[in-house]
Amino acid sequence: MYNFDQIIPREGTDSVKFDGMKRFYPDASDDAIPMFIADMDFAVAPEILEAMHERLEKKILGYTGIFDDSYYDNIINWYKTRFGLEVKKEEIVISNGVVPAVNVLVRALTKEGDNIIITTPSYGPFFGAIQQAEGRNALYNRLINTNGYYTMDFEDFEEKCKDPKTTMFILCNPHNPTGRIWTVEELTKIHEICQANGVFIVSDEIHADLTRSDKKVTPIASLFPDDKNIVTCTAPSKTFNLAGNGHSNIFIRDEEIRKAYQANGGRGSSNPLSVAATKAAYAQGAYWLDELREYLDGNFAYVKEFLAKELPDAVFTIPEGTYLAWIGLGAYGYSNDELEKKIGQGGVVIESGRSFVDNCDSYIRVNMACPLSVVKTAFDRIAKAVKS
User: Fold this and answer.
1) How far apart are CA 166 and CA 296, in angstroms?
2) Do residues 368 and 212 touch, judged by C-beta distance below 8 A?
């Protein structure tokens, strides 16, 4: 029903990914394919665009709040139906994005001198949030890499949680960049260790909808419905390609924590088009999303086969979640910086391991949310660059 093969020109739209590419990667070739930043090259679902057009027809885009309960009802129904997560209206706090929300949560719920654990390789802005909060310390729980499949080092995790200065763990599920979906058993163990040591859990689940067709995310909050020391960060942005709308929904169960969050700058503003898009996405976007997941499955299957033939020493496992391929190229002898430069000059802009904090030497992350024809051209170029 939906056409994910369509090539949609994005140049001239003030796209960070396209129009801003050379600002971030000046060494990239002029015809380079940008596959670094995590937004999609697919058209937004027509049901969402129609809702935004209908809102524009109202002709006035004034100060906007959320006064229609259907906004909350759509989100509550989505998370209950697809994830088994019970969310109450009063627990939903609007944010201008998950990263801004994490920044606020770090400031609001920790103090100077506190330790915050992240799993590495890590989405860079988690480390950035800790750096920006004065006096907080980042502790790395280095994931164990077994031929491209990552697991947690629970012995190390528990040791770090037992430090009385450790007060927060930033969980990422599905994990960015590795694509792991944490199992119920793993999440239960994480929770047991955190609860025993008074460690708060901030769970970034922005990619939770974007799993392979046979996989499903279990939100950690769904396993522990009475635990008020879990905050779940969600957004329609990755799921429905609405990143430019700057609109997220943060689930905060405890009233006092909500007050602390808002007192530290967590009062996100709403804009009329974002509200209309979010309502439509969670009410009408399920069919589009399920077709998208099948299409992404095909992209990943192609890359798995391609790498086995053209770069057989690459380390790659099809990720359980996200639309990001995490590929180890250490066997080819290049550093992170060399990979980024060599592949960029070869016509594809990717992110190397240097963007993911630690425990990621000679890896690249490639955004696969684009037409298969683009994926094929890009990986031909990547293989040529690595082998040259």
Assistant:
1) 38
2) no
Let me know if 293 is exposed, middle or buried by CB neighbors in 10 A (0-12, 13-18, 19+).
Answer: middle
Per DSSP, what are the bridge partners of residue 233?
204, 250
Residue 346: phi, psi to the nearest 5?
-85, -5
C-alpha to C-alpha distance for 320 and 341, rounded to whole angstroms: 28
Q: First CA to last CA across the chain, in angstroms?
A: 41
Spatial CA neighbour of 242 closest among 374, 77, 47, 86: 47
Token look-up 């974002």 returns: 274
Confidence of residue 266 (pLDDT cuts 50, 70, 90): confident
Q: Which of 94, 80, 101, 104 is nearest to 274 (CA)?
A: 94
Residue 119 CA: distances (Å) to CA of 127, 175, 323: 10, 9, 19
| Tokens matching residue 378 | 């890009």
Fold of the domain built from segment(s) 52-284 = Aspartate Aminotransferase; domain 2 (3.40.640)
Summarize pLDDT for 187-211 with one digit per residue, the tens.
Answer: 999 999 999 999 999 999 999 999 9
Report the alpha-carbon distance of residue 178 to residue 324 in Å, rounded.
8
Q: How confident is the model at residue 1 (pLDDT cuts 50, 70, 90)?
A: confident
Whether the predicted model's global pTM rises above the 0.90 cut: yes
Contact between 273 and 62 under an 8 Å Cβ cutoff? The reply is no
> Per-domain residue ranges for the chain?
21-44+287-387, 52-284
Q: Which of 200-227 are b and which e, b meaning 16 or more Cβ less than 10 Å from the residue's Cβ? A: bbbbbbbbbbbbbeeeebbbbbbbbeee
| CB-CB contact of 311 with 376 (8 Å) | no
CA angle 133, 138, 144 (to 5 degrees): 150
Q: So what CATH class is 21-44+287-387?
A: alpha beta
- How far from 60 is each of 57, 71, 244, 351, CA to CA, in Å? 8, 20, 20, 40
Quick: pLDDT tens for 207-243.
999 999 999 999 999 999 999 999 999 999 999 999 9
Q: Is 120 left (phi over 0), alpha (psi -120 to 50) or beta?
A: beta
Q: What are phi and psi of 56, to 5 degrees?
A: -65, -30
